Amino acid sequence: MNGKAQEENEQEPVIEVLVDPSLEAIRQSVVTSGMGILYRYHPDTDQRLAEGFPRFIEGGQGRLVVARSGKHIVGYAVITRPDSQERWGEPSAPELWELAFIEVARGWRQRGIGRGLLRACFADGALDDRIVLATAYVWHWDLEGTGLSKEAYQDVLVRCFGSVGFESLQTDEPNIQEDPANRLLVRIGPRVNPKVREEFLALLHPGETAALASRAGIAPPWRDLANVVAHSVRMCGPNGWLVPWTETWRVVASRTPGSFKRWLASFRLPRSAGAIPGSKAK
């Protein structure tokens, strides 16, 4: 190794990945800038995340994984239960979880941190008896920061998630259908009960499943699928986006999964145009 290569290698930062970190570890950390796609990279995003991570841990309703360089959090992933009002949030299906967020700070990408976060999420096997889905929506992608097209960004996501067993599945869910680049990525753990797997697959196209069940004279798996679908359409229809900025937070919250959504919703929305949710909890 020549001197220049050795110097570059020595300067490469060490990244540690913490799975289910303690409150103390998070409070001793600093969230680096360059994260916060939901906040459109507002300068105060790091503060919002720094306040939100402890709340999520205290809630005990999911898994948080963070990537740190020294004391700086440069990436994170969140796995939690889907919201009970979403198609995937059937209360009687405790085996179904959602990888709600995974993000790496803009200045720290192309270092394998995203893949490292994904590997850490599943390395201990704790989720091998669960179905974990990830909704890849184009409105959550940093196309500006990466300079990628939607198609190229989609390809990166599919390959990255595929490295830990996620597959892209077809569905008629309205949000997924809203843009051709959207994808539903699903990891069915190796210990998932076959019946649970079948019931989840039936949720991908509940209208077709209900029609087939009706013709066969049997009840479809998981009750009230029609009500779940109808609610999803009401909550997530395209008209939901035709609102001014001061109403945008309400719509973003409706598209944000599970208990992480409840954490985000704990921030107040300032009245001033262009502001992001404030730090006061309700």
Offer a quick outline of the entry:
With 282 residues, the chain is α+β, with helices and mostly antiparallel strands.
Please give a structural write-up.
Strands 1, 2, 3, 4, 5, 6, 7 and 8 form an eight-stranded mixed beta sheet that branches. The chain has twelve helices and eight strands. It has a single domain, classed as Aminopeptidase, CATH 3.40.630. It is globular. It has helices at 3-11, 23-27, 45-59, 113-122, 143-146, 150-162, 174-177, 194-204, 206-216, 225-236, 245-254, 258-265, and strands at residues 16-19, 30-31, 62-69, 72-80, 96-104, 131-136, 167-169, 183-188. α3 packs across α12 (258-265) and α11 (245-254) runs antiparallel to α12 (258-265). The model is unreliable at 220-255 and 263-282 (pLDDT under 50). By secondary structure, the protein is of the alpha+beta class. The termini are far apart. The longest helix is centred in the N-terminal third of the chain and has 15 residues, at 45-59.
